């Protein structure tokens, strides 16, 4: 049997080899030197191996003596478990272990409770104990010699259920019997500011609905668990939070954290948490039970059943404005469906409430927001959680207000635009750059796309494509605008910290940081930071595992700020170690020396030495932490400095709608974004394009549907994702670089904001084309038929 060290070394060697191959190939093909340091569009080090299909993912791992795992999942959204009979599964040849909730550490009262877990509230069992609360919840798991045997054994486990009536309507959750000992209310958050008696001359109201969007990672959710000689276990997973997952896994297994090691394999894209923890703990428990490595790869249906999705939302709004269209008061009720377990519903609700008015000034705001438990699939972290749902609602309200006043939609937004120094409804002053008006000006100044070609070969440009456009005379073009905001880092007192080590030996450097590159390009950024500070060309970013110092989860753009800050601080410490003896030899202070273009030079130009020469024969290293300034929880009136910083984005969407068939084609999306500082312009543009694509998916296609709590489309044929033909041309009107003085490098996160704003912009454009209210996402054909 392979040892954990062997597998880890092999994985590290494979990643190192692919990175080296990529760099070598890039060097061979390059006609000019590779971009160097911050502010350049340095290529990703993993781009070539991913394109060639040689990048190592969890699904590719193998170990000697490997067993295969499979999970039995509940066929009901709500049922009481009467009995579980595993005898038939154990009798099958090749089956090595079968586990249920009874095999996990018991609860505080000594009875099986399924070892509940959760990022905020521990309420979700690893394996259902006594009750199942959503369709597809894990009930038992099997390890066998062959994957087919494992699945057959899981299917042969006999579970007797007492089927219970599911609660699937979040509005019914308030009066329904408790679905969990913790009750059905995850959180109620009121927000009160200003005069409740204030009223405007113009009042507009709306009811808005946002469906369930799934992160739908294209890469398979897979993992490998290897038992260790000390009774612990090593997990190889595409985790986005290695230390958090390690600690929660150890707690569920009843082990000390140092007896669980989590090695991060290549992450095949992540716009949310990659895997549900029950998958990881089940895998580890099977390995511990059998004493052999166990691998598990989820089917696509299982992926839809297990990982969390975006919170469906119901939003009621009333906007008061004066005769000029300036906001006087906003009233709202926000209801998020958190599904069966709490996960991060509390966090999502805080963002939805705080950003309920959007990037606009309003002196009087009264909001009630709730997140509730149902028997629907669990909802959790996904780009712009909470902020996206409210962006769709408040932008729809502003379109309605502009229509009532006969004012241009852009102008109504300009009149209410938030600026630096203005207060948010939570009472927190916006101290970071807030160039909302400038973003609107940038998108409005960008030229509009041409109309579809008026010839037979231009049929594909119309909604529906060739043969699907109906009568071209029924096609209407619409232009819509939207502005949104997202917070960066954790909120409401969450402690943010990251640690990094930079080691320099000769002419190359190594970065050790447990920040997972989940597709946002942190590994590339880390290279650029060290190149910039130390002038070293060759920079290697070590693979991530939980034995390294903590860096926290890959979410809310935090690694650019927190982990990037830690890398910079460590690199600066190494820089001081390098320059100090040189400065002493020349009788000057370190501050009078600089590193640029691979050379160390003095302020007077007398000294000029290549960095490589100064580093020859030296080994220098330093470890540093970065911890942004603290925040505080929102109080009982929704007041408090809950956010470290905020990023803003404006969009203009252009759509063509066949008003007879209800088909919609997004022609063009123009984006202006507040980025603080563009550390890698090409990478920023790529992230914006990806966010727009995800937002367009929610606007027109993506909806994980349930009937009576059961998923009805858990496949990539039933759950429609945007393809290259559905994704519009994305044009960057402006990347506004007004640096945030408290942020590392002055930079802001870029991935979430476009995903938050795009659905609202597309809805606005469809509204403009059809004259219809468009009150739900995704927009169905019947919502766009205007005849």
TrEMBL record:
One Pfam family linked to the record: MoCoBD_1
Organism encoding this protein: Kitasatospora kazusensis
Span list, region Disordered: 18-43
Every Aldehyde oxidase/xanthine dehydrogenase a/b hammerhead domain range: 52-165
Official protein name in the record: Molybdopterin-dependent oxidoreductase
Organism domain of life: Bacteria
């Amino acid at each position: 049997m392979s040892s954990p060290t062997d597998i880890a070394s092999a994985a590290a060697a494979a990643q190192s080899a692919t990175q080296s191959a990529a760099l070598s190939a890039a060097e061979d093909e390059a006609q000019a030197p590779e971009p160097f340091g911050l502010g350049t569009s340095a290529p990703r080090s993993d781009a070539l191996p991913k394109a060639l299909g040689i990048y190592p993912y969890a699904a590719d791992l193998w170990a000697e003596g490997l067993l295969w795992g499979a999970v039995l999942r509940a066929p009901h959204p709500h049922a009481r478990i009467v009995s579980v009979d595993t005898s038939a599964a154990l009798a099958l040849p090749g089956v090595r272990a079968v586990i249920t909730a009874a095999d996990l550490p018991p609860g505080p009262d000594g009875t099986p409770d399924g070892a509940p877990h959760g990022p905020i509230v521990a309420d979700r069992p690893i394996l259902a104990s006594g009750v199942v609360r959503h369709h597809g919840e894990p009930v038992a798991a099997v390890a066998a010699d062959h994957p087919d045997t494992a699945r057959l054994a899981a299917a042969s486990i006999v579970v007797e259920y007492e089927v219970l009536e599911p609660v699937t309507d979040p509005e019914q959750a308030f009066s329904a019997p408790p679905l969990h000992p913790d009750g059905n209310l995850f959180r109620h958050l009121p927000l009160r500011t200003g005069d409740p008696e204030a009223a405007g001359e113009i009042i507009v109201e709306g009811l808005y609905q946002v469906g369930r969007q799934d992160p739908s990672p294209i890469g398979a959710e897979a993992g490998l668990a290897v038992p260790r000689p000390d009774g612990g276990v090593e997990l190889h997973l595409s985790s986005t939070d290695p230390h958090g997952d390690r600690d929660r896994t150890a707690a569920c297994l009843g082990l000390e954290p140092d007896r669980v090691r989590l090695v991060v394999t290549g992450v095949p894209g992540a716009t949310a948490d990659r895997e549900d923890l029950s998958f990881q703990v089940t895998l580890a428990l099977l390995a511990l039970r059998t004493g052999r490595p166990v691998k598990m790869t989820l089917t696509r249906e299982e992926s839809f059943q297990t990982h969390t999705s975006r919170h469906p939302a119901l939003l009621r709004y009333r906007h008061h404005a004066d005769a000029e269209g300036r906001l006087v008061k906003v009233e709202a009720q926000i209801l998020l469906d958190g599904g069966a377990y709490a996960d991060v519903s509390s966090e999502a609700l805080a963002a939805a409430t705080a950003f309920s008015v959007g990037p606009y000034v309003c002196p009087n705001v009264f909001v009630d927001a709730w997140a509730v438990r149902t028997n629907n699939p669990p909802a959790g972290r996904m780009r712009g959680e909470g902020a996206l749902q409210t962006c769709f609602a408040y932008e729809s309200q502003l379109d309605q207000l502009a229509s009532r006043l006969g004012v241009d939609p852009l102008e109504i937004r300009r009149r209410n635009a938030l600026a630096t120094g203005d207060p948010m409804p939570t009472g927190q002053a916006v101290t970071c750059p807030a160039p909302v008006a400038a973003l609107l000006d940038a998108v409005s100044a960008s030229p509009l796309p041409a109309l579809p070609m008026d010839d037979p070969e231009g049929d594909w440009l119309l909604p529906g494509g060739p043969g699907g456009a109906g009568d071209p005379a029924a096609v209407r073009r619409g232009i819509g605008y939207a502005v949104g905001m997202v917070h960066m880092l954790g909120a409401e007192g969450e402690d943010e910290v990251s640690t990094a080590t930079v080691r320099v030996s000769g002419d190359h450097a190594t970065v050790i940081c447990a920040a997972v590159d989940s597709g946002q390009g942190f590994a590339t950024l880390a290279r650029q930071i060290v190149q910039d500070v130390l002038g070293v060309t060759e920079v290697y970013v070590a693979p991530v595992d939980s034995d390294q110092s903590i860096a926290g989860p890959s979410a809310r753009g935090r690694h650019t700020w927190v982990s990037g800050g830690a890398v910079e601080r460590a690199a600066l410490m190494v820089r001081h170690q390098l320059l100090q003896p040189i400065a002493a030899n020349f009788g000057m202070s370190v501050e009078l020396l600089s590193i640029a273009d691979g050379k160390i030079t003095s302020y007077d130009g007398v000294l000029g030495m290549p960095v490589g020469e100064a580093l020859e024969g030296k080994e220098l290293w330093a470890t540093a932490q970065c911890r942004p300034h603290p925040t505080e929880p929102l109080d009982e009136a929704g007041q408090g400095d809950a956010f470290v910083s905020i990023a803003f984005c404006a969009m203009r969407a252009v759509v063509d709608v066949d008003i007879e068939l209800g088909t919609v084609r997004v022609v063009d999306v123009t984006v202006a974004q507040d980025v603080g500082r563009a550390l890698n312009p090409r990478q920023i543009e790529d992230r914006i394009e990806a966010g727009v694509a995800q937002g367009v998916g929610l606007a027109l296609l993506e909806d994980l549907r349930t009937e009576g709590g059961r998923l009805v489309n858990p496949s990539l044929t039933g759950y429609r994702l945007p393809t290259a033909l559905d994704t519009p041309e994305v044009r960057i009107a402006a990347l506004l670089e007004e640096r945030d003085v408290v942020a590392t490098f002055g930079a802001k996160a870029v991935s979430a904001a476009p995903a938050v704003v795009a659905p609202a912009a597309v809805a606005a454009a469809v509204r403009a084309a059809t004259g219809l209210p468009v009150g739900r996402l995704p927009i169905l054909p019947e919502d766009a038929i205007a005849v």
